[in-house]
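Budget justification aside, the reviewers requested a transparent look at the raw inputs and outputs of the sequence design task funded under Objective 1. We therefore reproduce one unedited record. The lines immediately below are the structure tokens for a 425-residue chain.
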């Protein structure tokens, strides 16, 4: 292996290595020292990184490496500090199974970093070639998706340093008590995400209001996803005046007291949609509610008044009725300029064949995805297919997953009429 790397030391630019549990192999320092033009490296081991890191103190600055992904049993700040000093042109860094000590090293030794993944469990975007040579600064930061919270004191130095450049923030921060919150406000008094476009956060006690304060003046935020919001009223008050949001999601929220506040927020979007002809770019086009207790039938009725909606995603809503969702869909179909093109309905007993009959009246519907619906049968699928046959509905994509009353026969019939049909029993 040493010979192979040496022979390609000038030509090798991309490398993907999986050493599993083997320890008598080259270390990261050896690889980076040898392959002087290596620009992208992915390194995987089932052992702690310290077993493979090697001796970076003896190598010179590496000017080619810009994209590094490491998956190890454990990664610490001490493991990566010297490596980051030598690989000073890194623009993308993804690390799995690391602890919060890495943030200090990242804060100090990654002046050109644009994309950071800290134990992410979703795909992190690749670098954009067209940004080469542009002014640096962290643009995207991803933590894990809800498994383990990150202490605010650990991650905030990195976020604060990048507050003017950060465009995407997907982070689950630990809750903060009154004393901790006071310390955050004292340490970061002028914290403001002035370039933020996409934000996903967990609305835990204390940290929710701190993060909302950072976007209070934003005019760039278009996509907001809030999860596990403990104080819906405070959340709504924090975002109510923001006019740039076009994609809004709320997930795993149980605060029933916040129901009136959600009604107020949705009514704002409904009223705003009436003015969409003059400001289409700032109108709500995407709405998702997942496993949210405060979503009741009356809120669905307000949702149906948002005339700019193009995508609607409802999952695991236990406090809505069949009549409530059917009336909502019927109201959508009555809009002269209704724009709803994509609907996803998951894991709700209230969704029945009558709901699919109603969906068949949405003449602009092109994409329908239903999943874990035990009360939808062949009759509902046939109703959708019939509207396609009649030329009323131009449905292009139908996806049916784990709907036990839907048979292969009705799916086969749908495949004859709809361009793309996916079925998972």
């Amino acid at each position: 292996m040493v010979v192979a790397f040496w022979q390609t030391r000038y030509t090798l630019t991309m490398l993907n290595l999986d050493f599993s549990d083997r320890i008598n192999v080259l270390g990261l320092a050896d690889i980076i020292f040898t392959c002087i033009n290596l620009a992208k490296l992915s390194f995987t081991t089932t052992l702690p990184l310290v077993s493979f890191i090697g001796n970076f103190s003896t190598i010179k600055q590496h000017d080619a490496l810009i994209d590094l992904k490491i998956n190890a049993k454990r990664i610490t700040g001490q493991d990566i500090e010297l490596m980051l000093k030598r690989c000073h042109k890194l623009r993308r860094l993804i690390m799995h199974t690391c602890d919060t000590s890495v943030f200090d090293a990242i804060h100090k030794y990654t002046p050109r970093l644009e994309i950071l993944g800290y134990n992410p469990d979703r795909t992190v975007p690749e670098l954009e070639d067209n940004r080469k040579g542009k002014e640096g600064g962290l643009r995207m930061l991803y933590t894990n998706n809800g498994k383990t919270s990150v202490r605010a004191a650990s991650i905030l130095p990195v976020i604060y340093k990048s507050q003017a450049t950060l465009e995407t923030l997907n982070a689950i921060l630990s809750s903060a008590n009154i004393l901790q919150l006071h310390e955050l406000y004292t340490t970061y008094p002028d914290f403001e995400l002035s370039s933020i476009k996409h934000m996903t956060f967990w609305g835990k006690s204390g940290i929710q209001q701190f993060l909302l304060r950072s976007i209070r003046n934003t005019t760039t935020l278009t996509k907001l996803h809030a999860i596990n919001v403990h104080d819906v009223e405070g959340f709504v008050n924090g975002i109510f005046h923001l006019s740039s949001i076009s994609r809004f999601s709320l997930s795993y929220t149980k605060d029933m007291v916040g129901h009136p506040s959600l009604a107020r927020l949705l009514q704002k979007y409904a009223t705003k949609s009436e003015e969409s002809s003059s400001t289409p770019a700032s109108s709500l086009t995407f709405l998702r509610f997942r496993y949210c207790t405060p979503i009741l039938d009356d809120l669905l009725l307000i949702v149906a008044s948002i005339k700019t909606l193009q995508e609607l995603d409802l999952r695991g809503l236990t406090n809505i009725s069949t009549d409530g969702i059917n009336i909502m869909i019927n109201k959508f179909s009555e809009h002269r300029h209704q724009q709803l093109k994509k609907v996803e309905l998951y894991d709700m007993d209230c969704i029945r064949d009558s709901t699919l009959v109603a969906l068949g009246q949405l003449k602009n519907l092109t994409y329908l995805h239903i999943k874990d619906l035990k009360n939808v049968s062949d009759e509902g699928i046939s109703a959708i297919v019939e509207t396609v046959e009649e030329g009323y509905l131009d449905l292009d994509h139908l996806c049916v997953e784990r709907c036990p009353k839907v048979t292969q026969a009705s799916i086969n019939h749908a495949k004859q009429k709809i361009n793309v049909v996916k079925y998972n029993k």
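The mean pLDDT is 93. DSSP finds 14 helices and 16 strands in the chain. Computational costs for records of this kind are itemized in the attached budget.
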